[in-house]
Structure prediction request, 435 residues.
Amino acid sequence: MKIAFVPIDNRPVCYNLARDIVSVDDDLELFIPPRGLLGDLWCSADIEGLFEWIENLPAVDCMVLALDTLAYGGLIPSRRCPENFEIIKARIERLKPYLYNKKVYAFSSIMRISNNNYNEEEKEYWDKWGKKIFEYSYTNGQCNSGIPDEILRDYLDTRERNFEINKLYLEWQREGLFDTLIFSKDDCAERGFNVNEARELENMGGKTKTGADEIPLTLLARAIKKDIKIYPQFLEPEYKNCISNYEDVSIAKSVSGQLELGGFLEVNAPDEADIILVINNFIDKQGELVMGWETKPYAGNFLPPDKPYAAADVRFANGADNEFVKQLIDKINLGNFYGYSGWNTSANTLGSLLAGIKVKWMAKKYDDLAFRNLQEIRFLDDWAYQANVRGQIEQPCDINLMMKPYEECINKIFGINSIHKYVYPWNRKFEIEII
Prediction:
């Protein structure tokens, strides 16, 4: 199967992870743009170069597209890009001829509203007015605590432009250009302009999903046509209706939504399932170590299922639950193990994990070493770095020695002898790249 794949940007979880997942099946061939064409924290993608890449693609079975990359230059540029609707429309219209008579799985973001005064991923004025704009949105315009008119106008104009582009994609969907079109709710609260836009898109026939970075991977799973029966096993079942950080739906609904989008069948009993999806969910409130948000770590006695299983570690956002991982790796059954994930938001964790499950389950030419390497990187990133080493450093620095004990532990579990280097692709602590 040949798959063309256009990521959101060049981060490892958007670019490398797709390649690592697909490499588990040598029968899959992933066509992905050169990494240098994609955007980063400050630079937009080379949109012209990406269109040239699309124009020169060989025949493929399907396309998985992050539309923000081709429209604005990436997810972050979609919030910063100053160009007007007509310019963006003319640009994206160039894509249409390449979508006819193909299976196309695409997503576009609903512009997020972050509840902070950090402008690292937003327009410059967010460092002074971010929280105020969030409040203005959360109250549907009823609370304006002194936001300057020109800033509020710019913000609302940018929202309106992106919303109109999303409505354009709905027209394309009615023309039959997409097999699947998803509008992502990125870093979403329970109320706000983005929630209103999602509701309006749904009323117009669109499908929305909480999440963002993982959605191309979930769509990749969907493109691999096979019904796999999944039983979600919540380790804290009485708390499965609690809402994760950065999301607007319960963890139970997040799980069900990712399963549906990924083309899985959710079943109600373990004996009906092909694979058990173990979900280390939180009690009351999701924690986040780097933010100092506490929650109760896993305190049960984890017993691996006696059939194929994978573990979604969502007790904490942006990193693993140390207590759960200790038990998981102590008792891991590699014969039945289908993967681990614990990065960033609950949706990010779930979507990427499900993509790996689908590829391994369906593999016609299974590469066991590629699967072990994939899992090693996830444990080193989500557990070793995000839940442990990241909290010990003030800024990007050499962490090779700090990561060594975790590396030796994971090497032993997966029977490999890898030596890695750790770099900061966006020159910030938030993400590392494992080489």
In short: Residues 226-375 form a domain with the Rossmann fold fold (CATH 3.40.50). The two ends are 27 Å apart (CA to CA). The CA atoms of residues 288 and 420 lie 26 Å apart. The chain has 14 helices and 13 strands.
